[in-house]
Amino acid sequence: MSDKISKNSEGAPSRRGVLKQLAAGGLALAGGGASWAQSSRIVLGQSAAFTGPAAQLGIQMNLGARLCFDAFNAAGGLGGQRIDLQTLDDGYDPARCKTNTEKFLASDVFALFGYVGTPTSLAALPLVRGGRTPFFGPFTGAMALREPMARSIFHVRASYDDETALIVHQLTSLNLNRVAVFRQNDSYGQAGLDGVTKALKTSGLAPVAVGTVERNTVDVAEAVKTIVAAKPDAIVQISAYKSCAAFIREARKAGFGGTFYNVSFVGTQALADELGADGKGVVVSQVMPYPYTQSVPIVREYLAAIKATNDPKIKPNYSSMEGYVAARAFVEGLKRARSASFDAFVGAVESLQSHNLDGFTLNFGPQSHVASRFVELSMLTGDGGVRR
Fold this sequence. Notes:
Blueprint: H1 18-23, H2 33-36, E1 41-48, H3 55-74, E2 82-89, H4 94-106, E3 111-113, H5 118-128, E4 135-136, E5 153-154, H6 160-173, E6 179-184, H7 187-201, E7 209-213, H8 221-229, E8 234-238, H9 241-253, E9 259-262, H10 268-275, E10 283-286, H11 297-308, H12 318-337, H13 342-350, E11 355-357, E12 360-362, E13 376-380, E14 386-387
Parallel strand pairs: 1-2, 1-3, 3-4, 4-5, 6-7, 6-8, 8-9, 9-10
Antiparallel strand pairs: 10-13, 11-12, 13-14
Helix pairs in contact: 3-12, 4-5, 6-7, 9-10, 12-13
């Protein structure tokens, strides 16, 4: 494959029609606690946005995970036990996520997996910190979920501090020192702003302006006015794809001619789809391997799994790549644990120190439940593609 990928279709269905169900409002919980605890299944619960303006983040994260779990199950699972990934739609709303998490825990799931978003994951945090249900591979880089370390929580991806440090280093090395921040007005946006501020401070700098947008909206007019007036060299965006796309278009109309930088949670392919030709030159930091070429073994596996679905609507992208990598890490821990018990699983994942997961290094340990600090930059091409 080339270093470009044609734009991804919205809401493409998975092999078994999963995405069609998700886009229609999320999969319902199947059965009560007794059925969930059947020995033939290892039940995981995922709360994420499957509808609304952030839906592609949840849909794609889920799809990538299912590609991995389906292959694991087809190979016999863990001694015949299959992974059953149950999902509930939270619409990227913290209150709904909290309710979903309570339902999952009441149903005695083995683990919570692949939650999507900082404010939603933080809503679940009090329910899982100190508990005996693993909270594995959330799609967030917020430090508030990482420090202090909790025995039940495992992160596969790098943090927003890691991402913003690379972005700011890139900018200051180019002598682009007037940096503004467009952020979601919640804990996710604050986490990104904190990372940018921390990175700028090392060079004696600070953001020249900050503009906000409410979660799940595209009301960016005030933020555009505030930020463009400050005449920044570059704008770092900490929000989801629809609001970031709206801001980019309006800021350019208002005369901003600099570069836009985004952290990975934006949803790279979804942002490219939203912007079309307007996306050319927009930069996005990434915490996963480049998902469009076969240079890394785990990407080859991922692309082969997509091909095996025989569904031309399913296209590779960073969000589903993250779901796939997180699922592979979970499966590796489960194989080492050799049983679906909390203590065995935690010990097994902690043993994945400097572990080569087919080209993606996991560096868990008893003192660190963050597997990776890998970050690199990508750029939208303007034709729906992404290049490094």
